[in-house]
Amino acid sequence: MTIVGATKAAPAAPGIPVPRSPEPESAAEARLITAAEEGDPAAAHRLGRLCAERGDTWGARLWWERAARLGNVDSAFNLGVWHQRHGTAEEAMGWYELAAGSGDAEAATRLAMLLLDRSGDVAAARLWLERAAEDGSREAAHRLALLCEDTGDYTGARRWHRAAAIAGDLRSAHYLGFIGYTAGDEAEAQHWWELACRGGDAEAAYHLGLLHQARRDEQGAETFFRLAVRAEHPGAAFRLGARALARGDLAEARSLFELAARAGHVPAQRMAGLVCVEFGDRQAAGLWFGRAATAGDPEAAYRFGLLLVAEHHDLASAKHWFREAASRGHRGAAIELRTLLSVTGYCPHGEPCLTDPPPPYWDRPVAPELTARAELAVAAVAHRGDPAADADQLIEILGTWDLITRDVPADADPIGWLAGVSGLHAAAIGHLGSVRSTVLLPGTAPWPTRAEVEHAVGTARELRCRLGLR
Question: Which of 84, 284, 334, 462 has CA 20 to 30 A from 229's CA?
Fold first, then answer.
């Protein structure tokens, strides 16, 4: 490729140095050298590639410089890459700009990224990305969409994500699914996630599974979870493990939980431990409980402590794990810790988790469709780059609301009734209900912030305490 408008060099190419090359390895290479020395940019470019393939980076640079100065766009691009790896960003930007100015979309994209990274020049970066995206570059369209998001231009972000997705960019298709879900348009979310899923995106398959589970379509959910598990997606393996456990298939449940557990999925590690206990495999159970407990899972820490006492009579280690679980509000662990302290002659008054217990640990079962909504909400917020709440917090909010509203009379206002029986201010209960509604019905209000979620969790715990519920 020759740069449009470049001056055609005279055969001698005065002022452009000729690299010193080793003896040509073939007659064809000798002809290339002769042609390059006479001013043929394509020959010089090919010699640069030959040098690069042999590991002669310096020779590659010199031949590419000769070719680029003679008008070869590909050599200008290669020099940008060369200087990005071996030289300076400033030199790389100069060569990329030369190539980009002649219509090289990848050079324009790389130039834009360097402009952002080195000088924070958003305006110039956007111009280059727009130029490349309008020429059909999928990568430039995706990068431009991300830049639009960063600058608050969500209309532009959607436009360019759409252009990238239509061109086959799975990342943009996945993101468009979240845009649709956030707006409450589940049909659009499904459309884009299915597009990404067909391209092999395991995350999109997983989120499709969650979407079907949120709609109580368990068969559809399982179909997409199984697609994601083919790529060993830990979340999908955990969900399928729970389904296998519910129908009593312990062998499949163990296999799936352990697949997710090996990938570091903490709830799966805890569940793998529980299933291993059912199989009588105490060694494996201890392994999984230990990993989940170390990661901060209260139930796993409690179970690990019980196992240490029963299998090894290791009271010191059991005390440690009971304390860890009790400090996170695990009621059973607090009881075991108090008992163990009394048996070993220690006073429980020195344990802050017993004298001033933390808020209770939420361990009640919650319907799969609610946990799916919670996880989708967290993923949607995180996908925008905003600080996301913990899915466990949203699950506690959703589960608490279901728990505390079971006894509300059919003709009563839930907020007023709960305020009356609990003594808690109606505004706080209303805020809890609002956060719940947004998670269950996305698009009806902006996603709650992390602070709003934490406030709602506090209200949920206070309500349960006042109503005598754990």
Answer: 284
* CA–CA gap between residue 134 and residue 156 (Å, rounded): 13
Q: How many angstroms separate the CA atoms of 326 and 331, rounded?
A: 6
Task: Indicate the domain borders of the chain.
Answer: 29-171, 172-231, 368-466
Read off the pLDDT of residues 180-231 as tens digits, 9 standing for 90 and up. Answer: 999 999 999 999 999 999 999 999 999 999 999 999 999 999 999 999 999 9
Nearest to residue 50, comparing CAs of 30, 71, 80? Answer: 30
pLDDT reported for residue 290:
98
- Looking at CATH, the fold of the domain delimited by 172-231 is given as 1.25.40
Name the phi and psi angles at 104, rounded to 5. -80, 110
From residue 365, how far is each of 239, 278, 398, 419 by CA, in Å? 14, 19, 11, 25
Q: Which long-range contacts (CB under 8 A, 24 or more apart) does 328-331 make?
A: 328/296, 328/298, 328/301, 328/358, 328/361, 329/298, 329/357, 329/358, 329/359, 329/360, 329/361, 330/298, 330/299, 330/301, 330/302, 330/361, 330/363, 331/360, 331/361, 331/470
Fold category of 29-171 in CATH: 1.25.40
User: Pick from 205, 170, 169, 211: which is nearest to 188 by CA?
Assistant: 211
The torsion defined by the Cα of 281, 334, 432 and 394, in degrees rounded to 10, comes to -20
3-state secondary structure of 184: coil
Q: How confident is the model at residue 9 (pLDDT cuts 50, 70, 90)?
A: very low
Helix (H, G, I), strand (E, B) or coil at 72: strand
Whole-angstrom distance, CA of residue 106 vs CA of residue 349 = 67
- pTM value is 0.82
